[in-house]
Design goal:
43% of the residues lie in helices and 16% in strands. With 268 residues, the chain is an alpha/beta fold. The strands form 2 sheets. Strands 1, 2, 4, 5, 7, 8, 9 and 10 form an 8-stranded mixed sheet that branches. It has a two-stranded parallel sheet with strand order 3-6. The relative contact order is 0.21.
Amino acid sequence: MNKRKKLGVALGSGGPKGLYHIGVLKALVENGIPIDYLAGSSVGAWVGGHYALFEDVEKLEEFTNGRKIEKLISMFEFSLTGGLIKGEKLERLLDEWLEGGRFNDLQIPFQAVATDLMAGVSVVFRNGKLAPALRASMAIPGAFAPVAYQKKVFIDGGMSNPVPDDIVKKMGADVILAVDLNGIPEGKDIKKVNPQGITDILQAAVNILSHHLAAATTKDADVVLRPYLEKYANWTDYFFTDKGREAIVLGEKQTKKIIPALRKKLEI
């Protein structure tokens, strides 16, 4: 009997759209698909890091789609330079939720991606405490102040490597599932999201840049999930509605459709 191939899952950046990742992991777990390696950028780093540490998708959903009051309180730490939110309170909260976890405590090998602001290159975290690495990976420009860590200054990993499938390949994955949250509709479907006004046009421009950068970083993937998730991209909706639950359900539903292809590639 042939030894099965190893699966690496690359979880992409995308802010509140990252709740989709939880549905992906749920579907993999429910269908007995083993996850051998994880890598994440921005929100993908949080989801991947938490799951790699506890290997508990229900706990991940509780801390990611819940605990919203605690998250809001942690963001009341305004910065005068570099971003609206300083982020130190958020890092302490992450460390508490991760129970002080370190990379060498992980149950599944995991690496997080951030962007070196001065060098303009992606940097991979694989050692030390999880919380500062995840904070660096999630430091959205303008929203959070850049993170000074390990003698460098970091911003969001999505700025340089939004879907780190190359990382799980280097970790040893034979088969790679990439989850790209920056999909945009093609052809006739674009009419459904025709931008109106300056703000909408600027946001559409950012979406286009993010889409093409993310698409370029999935070249190593064997299977790609690339949903259109703009209806879940609003932080106000995340904090004050239950749209996040819809994103989780969608991720689970769409992942179930690619399970047969994964089984075939993994030879299980």
